[in-house]
Write a structure and sequence with these properties.
The complex is a heterodimer of chains A (about 170) and B (about 900). Chain A is an alpha+beta fold and about 170 residues long. In chain A, about 20% of the residues lie in helices and about 15% in strands. In chain A, strands 2-3-5 form a 3-stranded antiparallel sheet. Chain A is elongated, with a radius of gyration of 24 Å. Chain A has helices at about 1-15, 55-60, 95-100, 125-130, 140-145, and strands at about 40, 65-70, 80-85, 105, 120-125, 160-165. Chain A has a domain at about 35-145: Alpha-Beta Plaits (2-Layer Sandwich), CATH 3.30.70. In chain A, a hairpin with a 5-residue loop joins strand 2 (about 65-70) and strand 3. The radius of gyration of chain B is 28 Å and the shape is globular. In chain B, about 25% of the residues lie in helices and about 20% in strands. Chain B has about 900 residues and is α/β, with parallel strands linked by helices. The termini of chain B are far apart. Chains A and B meet through helix 2, strand 2, strand 3 and strand 6 of A and strand 6 of B. The complex binds iron/sulfur cluster (SF4) (4 copies) and FE2/S2 (inorganic) cluster. One iron/sulfur cluster (SF4) binds next to helix 4 of chain B.
């Protein structure tokens, strides 16, 4: 009996507490930049697709909900021919983002992905690709990689010497 | 057996090995780069360091390169010694100072030996702050990609390309820390073994360019153990699929067959599976809507097979299962081989010889170990590429063995042995119609017409066994050659004679047999297709007999199994045959001239979509497993289609599907020459601890996304009822039985070098024995010699003997569907000897016409300096070219129109 009254009292005094719920959707909670929500594919500073189709995100994904196919343009720059995430499977763990060597795949603070049909939760590259560098502005993988894929010539990358002149015996 | 102590534990190891091999054979992990099991040690990379102690008391020890240290009894070694570990991790760190930040865009990634070794030694963060050396790349042709920045200077590529495979156009340039591995000038790599660079190079400098077109990481492939379809050697391959397309072929080690290497035709010739030209729909022609369904087709075919005379044309490139299913359907007496009479006759002779048990037919491994090789008439450079590589090893190793008999050096000590051997070579006699690259390493070679080569063979046999007939009017050339060769063969302990069908000469087979039997040496044959021997062993009559058969009947229904008759039968004869058939049912994989003639066309599965057993040139039956199930359900194994049709006849309607094992069992019960073939692979219901063997790696990605665009709910995993391999990532993860190894992988060893873990000892056989069942072994039967020596070849006035010239790139029916291979294929030409050309007043490039089989073929002349007079050569099997009556005498006209 006492316990019941106590419970009612405790509930009653909540009327005078500060409200933690908000009037969503009119009002929105502030989400940190590192909040792990909807996944996007970002772009390089030069406007090219950042993803190089390395398959590491797909391999890291614990629910195997990422499938893609790498292809390359005439300069040898790799990009995904298709890139599919099945968000009905995604658990927003962020492993893909962690695995991505190019900062292409990023989880962003957006969770409003509800759909009436589960099929609509399958996102293709067109749905994922955004016209922004996301959280890591200024980074272009090809500037630090050794390959010449039309972004920088051999020897022009950061921390690179000019290509070796193989006809010379000088040290 | 010496006992060595590794980290104070005693191990028994094999004599004559080096410490690295010994450790790896014991299953221990020790990093290495420059050593290769097939190429020995040079001690260049310093990665395999271990510590060796003088005796039990010695606590200081000294660092040695394990690959350069032989094992001896009582040797005390430490792999885990702190200084040795530090040494190894520093070596990798140095190698990495210049290594580009490329893994994400590097095709080697995920099967990279450098990645594996870096992880194994524990180096992870870069401390070196200075700049990286860079290199420019070269265009190396359509098959191999070059990205020189990734090189770690292990020298494996040039050691393989030049020393092992005899190539000349890949080299080391520059000096000190600038060494460069490439060609003098950009251009197509000339060696037909260049594809192996992708596997030999421990980094991503050389990678498979065809894979790049549809790049997939190793961990994402669905793999199965398969058998190469492009020649009769039956090299073992691993084929990988992703998204319903065959993505690449890599070597599958088989100690007795291909060992570590493939030829470029086998490695890159897989694209036909993905071709636009595939037959994807069952067709019933001459009705308004030709495309039809499985059930309607079976119904329709049911009408065509009953009440008609049924004949079946088998195929040298279809599996035994499919050929046997056809034989069962049409009846033994109505089953024909689908190859011309002359060829069937030669192949029959080969089967007779093998089945007699009078001689031993060597495996490729045994050819490598031969100490004298005679090639009689077969252009193995083009028709059996990996055999040419094996012959090269025999020549090199024989010389090395002679040297090490005098100066004791372990066989793995590659550099030292090469220094000692210098240019000395073992014995090879290359006696062929045309020269080939093998002449460079041959002790003697000769160009002659097939009959003259056979006469040379009989002359050798006569010297070896004087009771055999002498060759009448042998002439000086044959006599001298016969003396040299017979002497070398007599001195050899393991002589091997190689011959084959490419000259379409029966006399060559007889002569080669006589030599081998007189010597009690090995006799290896080369046949045209991947299952030529299997088909020949069924001892069915040739196509010509089928053609004669249809002449006598009016309502024949012919079922043609995976065989483009226009590729082996002159068009005029094939046309005549087809016009006599009332109904033509064709099962095949790709549209071709034969499928155009079909009234009913049935889409068949390629090797990658099918289980099948193939018999290679040494009569080794080998199972090739299905790599993927085609999404298109009407593409099915021919034997499945044929069994469905058969089920119509037996109204009992045995609804259960027949597995390949059942067909093989029936085959062996029917034909005793196939005894034992059912053991070629574990049966379809074989399980290990109740589990199947997964075709997919445990890190296979995208399972819930691959088909999500079509339906978001994941489909049930595909069920493979025909083998114990599964289409999932789950299953038994230990060592599978050797014939069922879908891919090589071991913890910490992601690259193909993990094969070490699957072998009984490094470079030895796979655990549980190398795959394949040899159907014929030598018995105590005494040989019956052939004594019929052919007449000498005499050029005829104004007539030429028409012979085929095969091309590794171009002559294959299927391999030319790979664009890179097609681009390396030669165009059509006509070859005459220099004298013949002069006599006819034509120059290189002039248009020359050959009249044969009711047609005139006009092509540019290509003069062959050393071609014997009286012979005209045309390239065989080029795409779109008719089959010609090889071995017949033809007219040539040289009028320039
Ligand atoms: S890890 Fe990054 S670069 Fe690699 S495939 Fe995924 S998104 Fe693309
Ligand atoms: S060679 Fe290996 S380590 Fe080097 S970039 Fe390629 S995958 Fe990475
Ligand atoms: S290219 Fe490859 S095989 Fe050749 S030296 Fe460099 S790393 Fe070794
Ligand atoms: S030698 Fe023949 S079987 Fe071997 S890989 Fe080449 S084509 Fe295939
Ligand atoms: S593997 Fe021993 S030094 Fe290279």
């Amino acid at each position: 009996m006492i316990s019941h009254l106590r419970t009612m009292w405790l509930v009653f005094i909540h009327i005078f507490h500060k409200k933690v719920t908000i009037e969503y959707p009119e009002e929105r909670a502030p989400l940190a930049a590192r909040w792990r929500g909807r996944i996007v594919l970002t772009k390089d500073p030069d406007g090219g697709e950042r993803c190089v189709g390395c398959y590491l995100c797909a391999a890291a994904c614990p629910v195997d909900c990422i499938a893609l196919q790498a292809t390359e343009d005439e300069d040898g720059r790799r990009y995904p021919a298709f890139f599919r995430i099945n968000f009905s499977r995604c658990i927003f763990c962020g492993y893909c983002e962690e695995a991505c060597p190019t900062y292409a795949i990023q989880l962003i603070p957006d969770f409003e992905m509800g759909e009436y049909k589960r099929q609509d939760l399958v996102y293709e590259k067109e749905d994922l690709l955004i016209d922004s560098q996301g959280k890591y502005p200024g980074y272009n993988f090809y500037n630090v990689a050794g390959m010449d894929a039309g972004v920088k010539a051999k020897g022009k990358g950061s921390n690179e010497e000019e290509p070796v002149d193989i006809k010379s015996l000088l040290p | 057996m010496p006992t060595i102590y590794i980290d104070n534990k005693p191990f028994d190891v094999k004599t004559g090995k080096n410490l690295l091999e010994a450790c790896l054979s014991l299953g221990l992990d020790l990093p290495y780069f420059c050593w290769h099991p097939a190429m020995g040690s040079i001690g260049a990379c310093r990665q395999c360091a271990v510590k060796v102690f003088k005796d039990e008391e010695d606590t200081r020890g000294r660092i040695v390169m394990s690959c350069m240290e032989g094992v001896k009894d009582g040797l005390r070694v430490s792999i885990n010694d702190e200084t040795a570990k530090a040494f190894r991790s520093q070596v990798v760190e140095w190698l990495m100072t210049n290594h580009p930040h490329d893994c994400p865009v590097c095709d080697e990634g995920g099967s990279c030996h450098l990645q594996d070794m870096t992880v194994m030694t524990g180096h992870n963060y870069r401390r070196y702050e200075f700049k990286k050396r860079t290199y420019t790349n070269q265009y190396l042709g359509p098959l191999i990609n070059h990205e020189m920045n990734r090189c770690i200077q292990c020298y494996r590529c040039v050691r393989f390309y030049k020393d092992y495979a005899g190539g000349k156009d890949l080299n080391v340039f520059s000096a000190h820390n600038h060494v460069y591995f490439g060609r003098e000038k950009e251009g197509i790599l000339q060696s037909p073994y260049s594809g192996n660079l992708a596997e030999v190079c421990p980094t991503g400098v050389f990678t498979d360019k065809t894979l790049k077109e549809h790049y997939t990481r190793k961990w994402d492939l669905t793999n199965a153990p398969s058998v190469c379809q492009h020649c009769s050697l039956g090299c073992n391959v691993i084929a990988g699929e992703r998204y319903g397309q065959l993505r690449n072929i890599v070597n599958r080690y088989n100690g007795e067959v291909n060992g570590y290497f493939l030829c470029d035709k086998g490695r890159f010739g897989y694209e036909f599976v993905n071709s636009e030209n595939r037959i994807t729909q069952p067709l019933i022609r001459n009705q308004t809507i030709e495309a039809t369904t499985h059930d309607k087709l079976i119904q329709h075919v049911g009408k065509l097979v009953s009440g008609h005379t049924l004949i079946g044309i088998g195929s040298p490139r279809a599996s035994l299962e499919s050929n046997y299913a056809l034989l069962e359907l049409v009846g033994k007496e109505n089953f024909y081989q689908g190859i011309p009479d002359d060829l069937a006759y030669v192949e029959q002779k080969i089967v007779d010889v093998l089945q007699s048990g009078a001689i031993h037919t060597p495996s490729l491994k045994e050819i490598e170990q031969a100490d004298a090789v005679l090639i009689l008439g077969e252009d193995i450079w083009n028709t059996a590429s990996v055999m040419a590589l094996a012959v090269r090893q025999s020549v090199m190793k024989t010389a090395a063995n002679h040297t090490t008999e005098q100066i004791p050096l372990p066989s793995w000590h590659d550099m030292a042995i090469k220094e000692l051997v210098q240019e000395t070579k073992g014995f090879l006699a290359n006696m062929t119609v045309l020269p080939s690259q093998l002449d460079e390493i041959a002790a003697t070679s000769m160009r002659a017409a097939p009959d003259d080569l056979a006469r040379l063979g009989f002359a050798i046999a006569h010297i070896l066994n004087p009771s055999l007939p002498e060759v009448p009017d042998a002439g000086e050339m044959i006599n001298t050659q016969a003396t040299i060769i017979s002497k070398a063969l007599q001195q050899a302990k393991h002589p091997v004679i190689i011959t084959g069908t490419s000259c379409w000469s029966n006399a060559l087979i007889r002569a080669a047999f006589d030599i081998a039997a007189a010597l009690n040496g090995g006799l290896a044959f080369v046949l045209p297709e991947c299952n030529s021997l299997g088909l020949a062993m069924m001892r069915a009559p040739s196509f010509d007999k089928a053609a004669a058969h249809v002449q006598q009947t009016t309502n024949t229904t012919a079922i043609i199994l995976e065989n483009d008759l226009y590729r082996c039968i002159p068009a005029i004869e094939a046309d005549a045959f087809f016009s006599r058939c009332k109904n033509i049912i064709v099962l095949d994989t790709l549209h071709n001239r034969t499928t155009e003639r079909a009234h009913v066309l049935i889409p068949a599965a390629t090797f990658a979509e099918a289980d099948g057993t193939f018999v290679n040139n040494e009569a080794r039956a080998q199972r090739s497993s299905q790599v993927f199930m085609p999404a298109n359900k009407v593409i099915r194994e021919s034997f499945k289609w044929l069994s469905d049709i058969k089920a119509l006849q037996t109204t009992a309607g045995n609804g259960h599907e027949r597995h390949p094992d059942d067909l093989l069992l029936a085959l062996e019960n029917r034909f005793p020459q196939f005894a034992g073939i059912n053991k070629v692979a574990p049966p379809h219901n074989f399980r290990i601890h109740g589990a199947r063997i997964p075709r997919e790696s445990h890190r296979y990605s995208g399972r819930t996304a691959i088909t999500a665009n079509m339906a978001v709910s994941e489909p049930k995993p595909l069920q493979d009822d025909d083998s114990s391999l599964s289409y999932t990532m789950e299953g038994y993860r230990g060592l599978p039985p050797a014939p069922l190894i879908p891919f090589f992988w071991s913890p910490g060893w992601n690259s193909g070098q993990s094969v070490n873990k699957y072998q009984q000892e490094v470079g030895g056989m796979l655990k549980g024995g190398d795959p394949g069942i040899r159907l014929f072994e030598q018995t105590t039967t005494l040989p019956t010699f052939y004594r019929d020596v052919p007449e000498a070849f005499v050029p005829r006035p104004d007539r030429w003997m028409l012979l085929p010239q095969y091309h590794l790139f171009g002559s294959g029916e299927l391999s030319v569907y790979t664009a890179g291979i097609a681009s390396l294929s030669s165009g059509p030409y006509i070859s005459l000897s220099k004298q013949d050309a002069e006599r006819s007043h034509v120059k290189d490039g002039d248009m020359v016409s050959v009249k044969t089989d009711g047609k005139t073929y006009t092509f540019p002349l290509s003069i062959q300096e050393s071609l014997p007079d009286g012979i005209v050569l045309l390239p065989a099997g080029l795409r779109g070219m008719d089959a010609l009556s090889w071995g017949s005498w033809v007219n040539i006209s040289t009028e320039i129109v």
